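Input/output pair, single chain:
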Amino acid sequence: MNSFKKISGTITFTISSPTAQSVTITENITIPLRMHIGIVGGTGANYGLLKLNSFVEVARSYQSVNVNYVNLDTNESISQSSTINAYEGDQLTFLSSGRLRMSQTGYSFVAPTINGYQFEHADTYRVTADRNQNVTVYYKPIPKVNVNFNYAWTDSSLTDKLPDPIRISGLPGESITEPQLTQDYEINNVVAPNGESYNNISDALVANPDFTSDENANFVIYLKPRLEEVPSVGNDGGLSTPSDGNQDTNNSIENSQEESNESVVETGGVSLTEKENVEDQQVDQTVKTQKNFTRVNREFI
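Output:
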């Protein structure tokens, strides 16, 4: 069928008679897709009435066409093929958007969406009487876009090294996965690509969840140093933090001294040997205590 709504083919007509040999006539013709046929005849001097006025539509074969979806860059298949059933002579057209349309010359189809690809083009195809027909629809890969998570100090006067930026890639429209941020710093606030400030990265992603085609879609994470507890020195010269058994040792020494003095008062005095034993015990405990303080001081330094 051509653009003038005509169809070409072979017509075969057979004339048969009970008393005569059959005759078959074959002719290659081009005729309109739709037409009226009339018959006119004469009978000479005899009366007769011949009349025929009938609408005729040329019969066309019904065929299946395989539609293949191919990567234009690699010529590889990117999706399972589909099938279109149409009549011989119908014209098949593929569009990037819109809806299925039927015209006098054929059909227009919207190319299906394939994840990670965008429709490029497809040649207009005219259905024939052949079997195993194929039409190819071409797509191109959609380039991935990047989203950067950059770090900055809340206090611009700080010169300490910042963590390395985090880059995540994805297709436009896909959700951004929350990155694993460093635990060595405390987040003060996060400025999202929309220019708004949020308390944390989760809140920023709720408001800006997807990749976009914007190449400047960056998140800025403002950090402040994480404060750590530092041991301090008490008024008596001892370490108040972290606490350990030293205070208990001092208390034990004082209690021992008090008990020793009370014992001397109650008995009216002690022997030299007992006194030396008590003093040796106190000295030994004092030395142990000094060693403990020395160990703690080294750890603190």
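The chain has three helices and 17 strands. The longest strand covers residues 77-87.
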